[in-house]
Amino acid sequence: MKDLLFMLADLWMIFAGFCFGWKFIRRYGNYLLGLEWMIVATSGSNFLLWALLGGDESSPLYSIAYFFDAFSRSVGITLILVMGLMRVTHRYKPSVAVDVGVFALAVAAGLYLQQFRADQLHVGPAVFYVVANVLTTAFLAYFSLRLWRIGATKQAVYAALVTIAGSVIAITYDFFPLAGDDAHRTLFYSAALATWGFQMFAYYFAYRALHDHNVKTGAEPAAGEPSSVARA
């Protein structure tokens, strides 16, 4: 039953990442969020394949899983997420060079931080991940408030709830193992994967609500139309 829950949670996250990642790119030209969503989905696909092949910790897939995990926890679902959402909160559109640079930073962070494996607590990296999440959560609280103020109450509540759930996962990840979980932390990862999938789902519809509001108020062109705001 635990294995089945894990598989379903992972499949849900993979679907949400690829589906809504593609929508971010195709409908809004938001490559920061679109590519990051797809990277999370690719991470989930790698994790699923590793599990289906027996979960061998000596497998290259195991090291790749840690790289993707460090990539998103350090820069992807922190800095890249905030920069991507700022397109509808502050009309911020970074240049291609900035887009490439921030993903290069995430790759560098992933390569460095993937060495700190979960077989023991590494206080420095663990604290860094929590601090990065706290700072991101502060922006997401503002993002949810913006949704509430424009009347998108459902999207605001959903965004707030998944943000709280994501913060619980981030704090629990290294510091508070679930009681009764197995050596592979199957219960924790099932909850984490499901939460990350719902975050990508909820943030997409929240982004759409703010985008549509901006279009109605004339602050932003409709999806697919050229913007009058020059890229920084």
In short, what is this structure?
The chain is an all-alpha fold. Helix content is 77%, strand content 0%. The longest helix is centred in the last third of the chain and has 31 residues, at 186-216.
Description:
The chain is an all-alpha fold and 232 residues long. It has helices spanning 2-28, 31-52, 60-89, 96-113, 123-149, 153-175, 186-216. Helix 2 runs antiparallel to helix 3. The longest helix is centred in the C-terminal third of the chain and has 31 residues, at 186-216. The termini are far apart. The model is unreliable at 226-232 (pLDDT under 50).
Question: What layout of secondary structure does this protein have?
Answer:
Elements: H1 2-28, H2 31-52, H3 60-89, H4 96-113, H5 123-149, H6 153-175, H7 186-216
Helix pairs in contact: 1-2, 1-7, 2-3, 3-4, 3-5, 5-6, 6-7
How many β-strand stretches? 0
Tally of DSSP helical segments: 7
Low-confidence stretches: 226-232
Q: What is the radius of gyration computed over CA atoms, rounded to a whole number of angstroms?
A: 18 Å
Shape: globular
Largest sheet: none
End-to-end separation in angstroms reads 50 Å
Give the key terms.
mainly alpha, disordered C terminus, single chain, 77% helix, 232 residues
